[in-house]
Amino acid sequence: MLKKYTIRDIANLAGVSKGTVDRVLHHRGKVSETALKKVNDILDKIDFKPNLIAKNLKNNKVYRICVLLPDPKKDVYWEPCISGINTVISELGAFGVNIETVLFNPTQTKSFLDANAQIQRSMPDAVLLVPLFFKEALIVMETYEALGIKVSTFNNRIASEAAKSFIGQDLFQSGRVGAKLLQSLVNEGDIAILHVSEKYKNAVFMQEKEKGFISFFNDLDSPNYNLLKHKLKDLDFETSLKNFIAEHPHLKGIFVTTSKTHQVATIIQKLTPKKIALVGYDLLTENIAYLKKGTIDFLIHQHPKQQAYLGLKLLVEHFIFEKEIPTQLLLPIDIINSENITLSARD
Amino acid sequence: MLKKYTIRDIANLAGVSKGTVDRVLHHRGKVSETALKKVNDILDKIDFKPNLIAKNLKNNKVYRICVLLPDPKKDVYWEPCISGINTVISELGAFGVNIETVLFNPTQTKSFLDANAQIQRSMPDAVLLVPLFFKEALIVMETYEALGIKVSTFNNRIASEAAKSFIGQDLFQSGRVGAKLLQSLVNEGDIAILHVSEKYKNAVFMQEKEKGFISFFNDLDSPNYNLLKHKLKDLDFETSLKNFIAEHPHLKGIFVTTSKTHQVATIIQKLTPKKIALVGYDLLTENIAYLKKGTIDFLIHQHPKQQAYLGLKLLVEHFIFEKEIPTQLLLPIDIINSENITLSARD
DNA sequence: TTTTTTTGTGTGTTCGAGCACATTTTATCT
DNA sequence: AGATAAAATGTGCTCGAACACACAAAAAAA
Q1: Which terminus of chain B is more solvent-facing, meaning fewer CB atoms within 10 Å of its CB: N or C?
Q2: B297-339, pLDDT tens digit by residue?
Q3: Nearest C-alpha of chain A: how many angstroms from B74?
């Protein structure tokens, strides 16, 4: 138990050489049945864990991993991802991994394609990317596949076999969480789901949240609530929202499906004397301010930092310690209010 | 950048031997100023990260770490800790650490003292423990200090210099989160904080939560709410609670400071036709059942698994990779409702 | 000037697993 | 039986950092 067995120990115990033990362990064949049995008998008796340290000493390759994500300058939502990547570098950089971050403009598909082409030319061992543009991502991932470059995705799920691994949230369930929170806040009246459509198309992801949101109230089947739905464009944002609110005097709660929740909060705070419950997404500075003020009641945390951190860490550990990469890793859907924000803002 | 520098590389670049480089790196002295400068010049130029793998190969010591926690058979709250410990074993066991779990009876201080005495006789390199009994824990930790055994604590914070490291929740803030949740659920009326006193004394920890709870409503300073406080003993639990509820017809919300929330739920569900909002602690099976049924509105997750996992992992990495152990690590205060429970139950 | 001490430098071995290669043993064929 | 092929087994080197030890050069003492 206290002893740390080595291949040599096993060889001595079995009365064979370490070469033979090695062949047994790796099923390399060229072992007589008698020797095989002798070694296996010992292996059954003791708990042999090959020393990971020695195992990797020989392999002095530097693995190269690229991370591709939207430029945080264009959308601050991605800001924490950078810090997640840096955490991995500081934790695992000494094991011989080279991590490069590549950014693309989330408003332009071309930027996404260009960045991928650039990465593919440099031929890294693996790529962790945000497949923001559905169609383009599919094509890009096939190219990676053909080049023998491993691909993991995070934040946005792509239903495709090319996507070997995904780290992120279950958006359907996330929508249900939002619904449940509104039910906690509002006893009866109109409840609206609001899509703030951003410049880039991530309609698929907003739809998933909507499905979950609606499914919750369907399951609830209560006469107290009346569901509404509304889309907001960046252009006529303010007037459109004001009109919507004016048209629905019984509006008691709003669920915003994107991180632009603060834009809605700005209006609600100004416009109405009577309280409308507001649930939205992501810990942007503006959102946090409204959360603390009380305009936003709950925020759902999508863990951008954690997503990048875990996705990258899994890739690194795959190369260094030969760990398996799970096909999908769904992160918990964190509910944030004004009181647990300080402790959650870190990641 | 792509090159992974070794000590040998640096030696060649500086025109000295690897022994000299080693002496410079470890400040072992016995290096002439000329040689020191030559080596440092190279070190400034390149980004040298000593290979952690090779570094530990030589050090083939098996570190022994004991984990001491209450027996999950006596209180299921601790059940997930075991799985957290096992995760560390499977993740880091191959690096040469021996982890032993020792259980004590949370209803008996003697059991705690006995278990510690047993651990101290076996002289491990470090101990991770739950300092459930304040006074006894202080004494015990001094003994560990004297024996040169590193101690980390989790779940319960002990205000003492002997506690080098703590992993757990900020209980004061946790009480504030509970208060905020009740405020979200209830618009006006009586709101009660309920202590279900368990057999063992953890009064200190319940008090912290209470302070936070009260501080929130003090800060709010709203005439809509009226705070109540009540203690429940295991013996006359049911009658006492029923009486309390009967005495306060305007009771609209209850905050239970322990994992025994389900006991309160049982009564609330039976007794009252009109809804009383209920916020409590921990993802016990019974609590989860009431959460899904709607009797419990929110549960605060104390992350028992994560606490044990992180506490142990930090100790292991301290020995294996010489990482610093933080003096305290406060885990996020997770809010759980019926919809995000499935994804959070895992840890 | 010679001997002793101090200080600086380089060399060689170790750790455990992996794998190439050498060597021994066993089986097959003339 | 002897030659040869095939299978089984053992040996020895590698990886990078750490450290003991040997040895050289310079400084101090005789």
Answers
A1: N
A2: 999 999 999 999 999 999 988 888 778 889 999 999 999 999 9
A3: 28
